[in-house]
Amino acid sequence: MMNKMIAASHSIFILILVLLLLSGCATQPYGSFIQNPSPIYNRYSKVMADDVTAQIVRLYQAANTQFNLRHVAIDPFGKALIENLRLEGFAVQEVTQQSIQQPIFAALHQLETEPQKGLALSYIIDQSGDLYHVKLMIDDMRLSRAFSVQADSIHPAGLWVRKE
What we know:
- The chain has a single domain (30-97, 114-163), classed as Rossmann fold.
- The chain is 41% helix and 27% strand.
- Strands 1, 2, 3, 4, 5, 6, 7 and 8 form an 8-stranded mixed sheet that branches.
- The chain has 5 helices and 8 strands, in the order H-E-H-E-H-E-H-H-E-E-E-E-E.
- Helix 2 packs parallel to helix 3.
């Protein structure tokens, strides 16, 4: 009887260990996917982040809303967006590289802590020629907008698209 219990707990331990190792191999599908950005890309990022911030301000109350980033924002767009949101009065909880590398321990301790307050926030930014596309995910809502480059400046190439 005791051997069966040890074997069962041993197999559960191995299963958990394998799942933890596999979760460490998963890549984050969020962030900037701009390859070989041009020198002017930092300025484009600021313009796009300003536009995204203005849209968020239209949808959420600044003093009452906290955003919890779901990924590390180390690209120029992400840095500008975080700065803009904080300047507008939103609380922004950033993710550190260390917390992404240790999702297992966080999952084990999450049961002991209270649920995290705020809205989950992530973004994807990519480029196709002179067209940039920003996709913003706030909890279950999806916002997207295209931006076009014309004469060394960037402008919205359409309206915001909202999907819930």
